[in-house]
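User: Show me an example of a complex going from sequences to structure tokens.

Assistant: Sure. Here are the input components:
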Amino acid sequence: MTAVDLSTHPGHLARRLQQAHTLLWTTMVSEETTSPQFAVLNALTEKPDIDQRTLSEHVHLDRSTIADLVARLGRRGLLERVRDPHDGRRNVLKLTDEGAAVHRKLVTRTTRMNRVFLAPLDEGEQETLLRLIGRVADAAEELRG
Amino acid sequence: MTAVDLSTHPGHLARRLQQAHTLLWTTMVSEETTSPQFAVLNALTEKPDIDQRTLSEHVHLDRSTIADLVARLGRRGLLERVRDPHDGRRNVLKLTDEGAAVHRKLVTRTTRMNRVFLAPLDEGEQETLLRLIGRVADAAEELRG
DNA sequence: GCGAGTTGCTCAGTGTACTGACTAAAATCT
DNA sequence: AGATTTTAGTCAGTACACTGAGCAACTCGC
């Protein structure tokens, strides 16, 4: 009968926000490397030699998705996946030199992109937006920790 | 070299927000009908007899994605897709009785879910969050209108 | 009224993201 | 040590979401 106004629905808005971000990313940052892939490169820059499980916690993705992502990045030669000799279940991950180079390049571009993306808001609003999204996401993740 | 802090990156936060939302949706709203599918049902409740192109504008999804979604909902008997006799290119879409019933049921559950999802914020913050996301998304969509 | 352009849809391909079932390896508990 | 449980990873299946190519139908300019 009566339809609702989707612009008051956080889920719908979240999807649109991510969609808009992806679009801008491909034009301003990279067509080859996606934002989740950058998150993986970034995590491995900060913490090399971790396994897929630990990585999945850092970037907030589940193990299946990480496996796909890591396989793609491996195929492109941006990281290495080596079986842990001390624990035969684990794949130990490490960036290659090329992977580190790609990460360095994307860091500057990403910074620039974020400025453009948030340009419609003033500085206080930008800070508020990021903080509020973080709180909602954290709380929701808590529910199924 | 130096890794960045992803918690200050709107794209990463947007993905986490949507991820958290999807998780809560499947537990509190429906396991069969996803949030984008609900958006389609809602749009057709408000405006029946539109074609896929118009629908894609209403829910902010591209034509390929809409085609998939509509096909799935059609298979489940929630909507009908009829060739427009006046324009042989168009598929005219209309909810079935069952589709309208599913929409009605999900409206109440979605309202409840949104309350839980935004519960970590007070009312002013909730309003702020939705408004700020909307402004950023609108502006970004403007760039590639 | 006919050719050129536009429009609505489909299809193939790729990437993200989940669940659930499974395998293999390690840790734990008698 | 042997049986049980937990853990890391893979695989199949499904859904969302985009691009780019292509097709069929309509519109417009002349």
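The lines above are the inputs; the final block is the predicted structure for all four components together. The two ends of chain A are 37 Å apart (CA to CA).
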